[in-house]
Amino acid sequence: xxxxxxxxxxxxxxxxxxxxxxxxxxxxxxxxxxxxxxxxxxxxxxxxxxxxxxxxxxxxxxxxxxxxxxxxxxxxxxxxxxxxxxxxxxxxxxxxxxxxxxxxxxxxxxxxxxxxxxxxxxxxxxxxxxxxxxxxxxxxxxxxxxxxxxxxxxxxxxxxxxxxxxxxxxxxxxxxxxxxxxxxxxxxxxxxxxxxxxxxxxxxxxxxxxxxxxxxxxxxxxxxxxxxxxxxxxxxxxxxxxxxxxxxxxxxxxxxxxxxxxxxxxxxxxxxxxxxxxxxxxxxxxxxxxxxxxxxxxxxxxxxxxxxxxxxxxxxxxxxxxxxxxxxxxxxxxxxxxxxxxxxxxxxxxxxxx
Length: 354
Known about the structure:
By secondary structure, this protein is of the alpha/beta class. Helices cover 31% and strands 16% of the residues. It has helices at 2-8, 14-26, 86-92, 128-141, 157-162, 177-180, 223-234, 251-258, 269-278, 303-318, 324-331, 338-341, and strands spanning 44-46, 101-105, 108-109, 113-115, 125-126, 147-151, 168-169, 184-185, 190-192, 194-199, 215-219, 242-247, 264-268, 282-285, 292-294, 297-298. The strands form five sheets. Strands 12-11-13-10-14 form a five-stranded mixed beta sheet, with helices on both faces. Strands 1-6-2-7 form a four-stranded mixed beta sheet. The radius of gyration is 20 Å and the shape is globular. The N and C termini lie far apart (59 Å).
């Protein structure tokens, strides 16, 4: 156990593991060692400069079970428009220091949305998702830094939108049929798939029989947990796989893995690749076993905001200087495999034109 913990503490990913060890051994959290976990009482992380990380992800590869709508979930969005509307008018009507776009993000996902541990206590959020947030703020409010970031756990993304605590969530959030019943999504901005992450020394080979009797960690409310639970019920996942370990934030799974409390992590391949970059003792095992897409999530009735974000994404894809590809090259290409490094933003399809 000690050797495993010591190995896991190496590198950037060891910051989280060190905090967990402190909590276990000393009985209190080493908060000062965790620049990535700093946030205000209301979940706000303050405002930051232009983002420094990138990411990509994907959604269900089957049409939603709705006889009236024969479309894949990533296609169930509105056509782009640069026009203002009631939702955008309310955002623009905020006065003074409150005139900001309020966005739910992650601050612990390396190269997606995170605080650089070398950036000091006031380090700005960085990452692929953060780049996109700044682009949206620039378009709507004319200032890329007119953003109030709020750190949102994986399992609180939808409630934060529904209760109006945020205008949108940009947090490696997969578009799927179940979520479409609760929130609206933009067109997809990244394609990925679920994948297994485990120690290099493990006998786990991928999403197959080698997961027998293994403890697998997933984030609460994640598509990874839903997929594994569904596959186990359907007999597609070995029955002895232990899915009982769930955590509020996906990075907590890496900490559990470093501490030897679980044998494997299942999450989006793009996130898993970033975690492997944080900790050289772990690696991706096997190929992705799903196809999924990330989208920007908003309130179900915020049609004008959905259309505006879709227009931003159209322009972001076309921008060859500081657009999607530039952000991808900066944040993700070094951590993803060769084929992923050649990735392009997924082509948009729109269900509703009006």
